[in-house]
């Protein structure tokens, strides 16, 4: 399949960069074709303009073409303020445009990106127990606006997210183990069941 | 009090622009001082850089100074993909920096922005009944990552959001009524009870 990796981290030596490399290597070796949007390297402009909001999609067409070709959209990013970095949020604001990803008559079960899958792969700052200390920190709840309100809205099947906790606090051995766990996760992608939502349309 | 209005809409004729004008007028007449960050007009760059992530806050200092002076932060924006426009998400990514808004020892009850209030004022695309058709659409749930994970995390009191449903589908009379309701809401701000979260620190 064609996999579009949308990658958003400013530091090429970050753990997110290492995860992106694991994804490129693992999925290539498994026979998939990789498309990459390295948003920081591309100096991607995340600001949706008035013209684009009115439907002029000419400037964003190259990214739209990548999504059109992709069977799986894989988003790799650090969790900032319980959400995506602005450069990635703006990629969604601009690329998932009305008429391409959805329209008034097409959302959820018949969204215009139906047939594609989507996967969030992210790092979070704290250790796992932090996210169990309050329901508001439950990461499936935190990610729900993206999973449901954006990806499922456009008709995509949303795979369970892959989350790495506190990479900056990890030992070298722990980092290696986390990357190996990610590699195994990617190899098992075809077996993953998509997330379910209470109401789909 | 000093009110910082952080406004994010590309269209100066939008309903969001009208709401911003209501806020400026109403709060000024009530004796408050207004600071305004009109992010589109400022051509604000929402992309957090590697240098800034490492703690170099020189480029964002003017916005930090506005926040320092503000008693209330009022965010005015359209809901895009169950979240903020990227230009506003990036304002938070950059302005609520470690060492200014929080640090390892200071979050939630003792967050570094303690003593300030915050309020989201937003438009959403559909009519109110759409948001009652699935729990994932409940707008307090949709906004929770911002309310809890960002604003409350930095120590601010979070006031209940003001939400306008489907302004583009409204008649002129409905638009006038919505703006008048917003004016009344702003006049009643001192009486509003902040949102409560299950666990605060």
Question: Your description of this structure?
Answer:
Two copies of one chain form a homodimer. Chain A has 201 residues and is α/β, with parallel strands linked by helices. The first copy, chain A, has one domain: Rossmann fold (3-Layer(aba) Sandwich), CATH 3.40.50.360. In chain A, 34% of the residues lie in helices and 16% in strands. Chain A has helices spanning 15-29, 50-53, 61-69, 86-95, 139-152, 172-187; strands spanning 2-7, 33-38, 72-78, 117-124, 157-158, 162-165. Chain A is globular, with a radius of gyration of 17 Å. Chains A and B meet through α4 and α5 of A and α4 and α5 of B.
Keywords:
201 residues, alpha/beta, 34% helix, homodimer, 6 helices
Describe the SSE topology:
The structure is a homodimer of 201-residue chains.
Chain A lengths: L1 E6 L7 H15 L3 E6 L11 H4 L7 H9 L2 E7 L7 H10 L21 E8 L14 H14 L4 E2 L3 E4 L6 H16 L14
Parallel strand pairs in A: 1-2, 1-3, 3-4, 4-5, 4-6
Helix pairs in contact in A: 1-6
Mean pLDDT of chain A, nearest integer?
A: 97
Please give the domain count of chain A: 1
Please write the CATH class name of chain A: Alpha Beta
Annotated CATH architecture of chain A: 3-Layer(aba) Sandwich
* CATH fold assignment of chain A: Rossmann fold
Note the run of SSEs of chain A as H and E. Answer: EHEHHEHEHEEH
Main beta sheet of chain A, described?
6 strands, parallel
Low-pLDDT segments, ≥5 res of chain A: none
Q: What is the number of beta strands of chain A?
A: 6
CATH homologous superfamily classification of chain A:
Flavodoxin domain
The N- to C-terminal Cα distance of chain A equals: 27 Å
- Biggest protein-protein contact in the assembly: A-B, 39 and 39 residues
């Amino acid at each position: 399949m064609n996999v579009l990796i949308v990658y958003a981290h400013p530091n090429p030596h970050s753990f997110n960069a290492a995860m992106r490399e694991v994804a490129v290597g693992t999925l290539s070796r498994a026979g998939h074709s990789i498309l990459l949007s390295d948003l920081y390297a591309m100096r991607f402009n995340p600001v949706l303009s008035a013209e684009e909001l009115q439907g002029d999609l000419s400037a964003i067409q190259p990214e739209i073409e990548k999504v059109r070709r992709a069977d799986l959209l894989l988003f790799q990013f650090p969790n900032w303020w319980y959400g995506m970095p602005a450069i990635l949020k703006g990629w969604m604001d601009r690329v998932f445009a009305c008429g391409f990803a959805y329209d008034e008559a097409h959302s959820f079960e018949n969204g215009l990106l139906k047939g594609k899958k989507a996967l969030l792969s992210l790092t979070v700052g704290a250790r796992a127990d932090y996210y169990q200390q309050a329901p508001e920190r439950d990461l499936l709840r935190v990610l729900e606006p993206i999973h449901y309100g954006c990806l499922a809205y456009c008709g995509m099947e949303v795979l369970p997210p892959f989350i790495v906790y506190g990479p900056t606090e990890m030992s070298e051995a722990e980092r290696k183990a986390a990357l190996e766990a990610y590699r195994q996760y990617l190899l098992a992608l075809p077996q993953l069941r998509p997330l379910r939502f209470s109401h789909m349309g």
